Amino acid sequence: MITRREFSKSVVAAGTALLASEPVLLAQELQGPRNVSPNQDCDLLIKGGTVIDPGQHLHSPLDVAVKNGKILEVSRDIPESRAWHTFSAKGKIVTPGLIDLHVHCYDGVTSGVNADHYSVSRGTTTVVDAGSMGYLFVGRFVQDIVKTSVTRVYTLVHIAAVGATTGLDYAQDNLDWVEPGPAAMAAMENRPAVVGIKVHLQQSKSRRPKDLEMEFMKRAVQAAEACHLPLMAHINDTYYPLRDHLKLMRKGDVFTHCFNGFPTTTPLDANGKIRPEVREARQRGIIFDIGSGVHHPHFTFDVTEKCLQQDFPPDTISSDLNKDNAIDGIYDLPYMTSKLLAVGMELDKAIECVTTNPAKVFNYGVQIGTLRPGSEADIGIFDLREGNFEFKDAIGVARKGRQKLVSHAVVSRGQLLANVAV
Q: How many CB atoms lie within 10 A of CB 200?
């Protein structure tokens, strides 16, 4: 029986083709070895692109050489004679493989999507599942998804035993299903696939207003402390004000959906100014993550524009990809990055928010988010299209943008893939 990994590597399944072994797509750009010589010291050469790697302060025409699944060299005018295969990136942007801190990718289980189709085939080489499973089923997630995907998949353990995908409403009304000890134990037993704890706080997810919400948050923090991992907190439209939850969060914890439009949890006060407790939280080291999503005010252009105008950009940009918003080419991470360009974020800063910054949030066990020699050979190759594009936020408000980032090809774990999905 064909495995998920084998299926994902086919042209039609995950939207990619392994050009290094099967030059079916973009064959004119992938050139095999012309001569076998002692000078051929790299497996793949990405040549002629504009390299943007904010972690190394790079934004210039450079070539990228790959050897044995690692970045070998980034420099000007690397001779093609050194490479077994050369890929032309002329006119393209070359970045570290993108990292999406917030997806739901338990494919086939409620809201989960296929990570290989919606992520690696679109330039996002690493994703973090944001707590689809709690301690009861996270081991199953690791076996079913983490170990079978081409995409680098990591996960958070939801503090609710059943996770965010099934029965969350019930769990939040029954603290017997919210146990810090088992959650922490499951996280430690499933390292390095598990990189943190997740908590989901929202009025619509609980029928018992004020007697459980803060306890739910406190137990999530306890679990994170017990396993020495960060906490990601979905804090939207809560019964308690945002400041009460932020006070409990620690340096390195993540506030996802940070630019939401809910009155109780938006980062803005009634006058449209950044709340003092929000600035204080950033000073303490809290990470502010976009987590766009759709159909709910998790991300609004209005809030985002006002935050950017007050020099309060997000630390990380993420998609909240799930079955509700999995529309081809619209809610993937490059598209989400394009939304930030549309509201005034500079390109290098936006790339930093999907490469350098998310690479620092969790301990992935490997060096990603950079093209530094010796790091993992995860590379995004993008078209930066110029034109008039319309983008919508999570509540359907439109903004016009002049640039759109679209995946052209990707290198994942040292293997060259071509995007055919969008």
A: 24
